Amino acid sequence: MVFGSSGVVQAKKLLRRSLSGSRQESSADVPKGCFPVYVGEFRKRFVVPIAYLNQPAFQDLLIQAEEEYGFDHSNGGLTIPCSEYEFNLLTAQLN
Fold it and tell me: Which PANTHER family match (predicted)?
């Protein structure tokens, strides 16, 4: 996977397709410039900045999510296939 500008465009397309079926009420409490993701065994909800889409490590998670879940996310948001602990470590590095 190329992580240059074409990788960012591809990541945004993956996110857009994944969230296209999102419930309206779940997007009401998401600040502008952010999007919700669900992580871990109990699908804990996190709200992350769109700027994460530029990060290769986050792009890898999006690719894993596409491979594991496709674009049909029954909970109305993007499900990330990793533990909450791993996700917290990643986002701490990105901040």
Answer: SAUR-LIKE AUXIN-RESPONSIVE PROTEIN FAMILY-RELATED
Q: Please indicate, yes or no, if residue 75 is contained in any of the structural domains.
A: yes
Number of folded domains that form the chain = 1
Q: Report CA-CA distances (Å) from 22 to 17, 84, 92.
A: 10, 22, 26
Give domain status of residue 20, yes or no.
no
What are the distances in angstroms from CA 33 to CA 27, 49, 84? 12, 6, 22
Residue 50, in any domain of the structure = yes
Measured between alpha carbons, how far is 78 from 36 in angstroms, rounded to an integer?
A: 7
Q: Which two tokens stand for residue 70?
A: 């496709």
pLDDT over threshold 50, residue 2: no
pLDDT in tens, 8-59: 555 555 555 555 444 444 567 889 999 999 999 899 999 999 999 999 999 9
* Residue numbers of the domain that contains 51: 34-94
Give the angle subtended at the CA of 91 by the CAs of 90 and 93, to the nearest 5°: 70
